[in-house]
């Protein structure tokens, strides 16, 4: 794995001899590509889904990134889109037509939820959500018109997992397409395609780019599926990745292994520390030996990710606010996967303790970035002291 990873991150898709021996891939900042003869132009049209003709289709800088991402997920091909949300909608929309049904894991990423509940019903596409902790009960929700099973394992707030191999095998027998959001684990922490998942999805905004300066999405799958999405949703809806954004992600990707290693190790260290703290009521973390899904996490994932969620032993939202406001290194923001540690306090979505929300107000999701683990631990420790003061 290690040797292969170095080849992917530093060699795959790179053609230095075609780039004046430039070490860093050039940014082909061009909208169109020109041809010397009518015959060459005609041939280019025939291959517009494989070779550069217009940047809304194929661009050489984006192609380098696509090859690296496909290799990272162990799929034949990959596509890079303008956001993770664009990747979600292109993947689902490519598979469904009027009258079809999508079976989705309960509480998916919010914009996947919106796509299924508010957008696709306009086009006669049905959906249902179901708890997928037990694959057998989940699969009982499959209907005769189910075309897509949409998964997110682990979920990026509750970290609930699905048995990808079992669900994929069931779906394959029935010709149902499986899509799995792999953003939390990153391609290093989990390989859904190897477990039989058809389309692997990422918000490249998170670990893949890793510097909190770009929004992008990724789809990895067979040549046939990626070609179908490129020729349809990618070029029609036009949520493409620009050459400059692709280059930024290529630059970010060089350090993927060291960043993910650091983030996941810090997360594990602070998990071990947090579980000893009296202020913590509960920790949500796939690699917690007390997690009922721990065995599945160990079997299905190569290692943990850099996120975990805690429930604090707090009496009020105001106590939560005291703790959160006192943190100096954990910036209060959405997203994750960059260099900076983050906190997402669920009480942000509450005006008072009696409001309704599917997540409790004493919950905070933490992302562990690249800061020193001891610095982060001290930050948490001093905020705990402020909480009760
Ligand atoms: C952020 C995120 C997305 C959406 O990605 P964008 O790049 O923000 O559009 C999808 N899934 C998960 C798990 C995410 O964390």
Percentage of β-strand residues: 15-25%
* Sequence of secondary-structure elements: HHHEHEHEHEHEHEEHHHEHEHEEEH
Largest sheet, strands/sense/barrel = 7 strands, mixed
Identify the bound ligands. pyridoxal-5'-phosphate
Tell me which oligomeric state these chains represent: single chain
Helix content range: 25-40%
Structural Rg:
22 Å
Strand order of the largest sheet: 1-7-6-5-4-2-3
In DSSP terms (H or I, runs of 4 or more residues), the helix count works out at 14
Low-confidence stretches: none
What structural category do the secondary elements indicate? alpha/beta
Mean pLDDT: 97
Distance between the termini: 49 Å
Shape: globular
The count of β-strands is 12
Per-chain topology:
Layout lengths: L1 H9 L27 H9 L13 H14 L3 E5 L2 H12 L5 E5 L4 H10 L6 E5 L4 H5 L6 E7 L11 H11 L2 E5 L4 H4 L9 E5 L13 E5 L1 H15 L5 H11 L2 H19 L5 E5 L9 H7 L6 E6 L4 H10 L4 E2 L9 E4 L17 E5 L5 H16 L1
Parallel strand pairs: 2-3, 2-4, 4-5, 5-6, 10-11
Antiparallel strand pairs: 1-7, 6-7, 8-9, 9-12, 11-12
Helix pairs in contact: 3-10, 4-9, 13-14
The structure holds pyridoxal-5'-phosphate (PLP).
Q: Could you describe the 3D structure shown?
A:
This protein is an alpha/beta fold and 389 residues long. It is 39% helix and 15% strand. It has 14 helices and twelve strands. The chain has helices at residues 2-10, 38-46, 60-73, 84-95, 110-119, 135-139, 164-174, 186-189, 223-237, 243-253, 256-274, 294-300, 317-326, 373-388, and strands at residues 77-81, 101-105, 126-130, 146-152, 177-181, 199-203, 217-221, 280-284, 307-312, 331-332, 342-345, 363-367. The strands form two sheets. A seven-stranded mixed beta sheet has the order 1-7-6-5-4-2-3, with helices on both faces. Strands 8-9-12-11-10 form a five-stranded mixed beta sheet, with helices on one face. Helix 13 packs antiparallel against helix 14. Pyridoxal-5'-phosphate binds at residues 83-85, 109, 152, 156, 181, 183-184, 203, 205-206, 215, 217, 335.
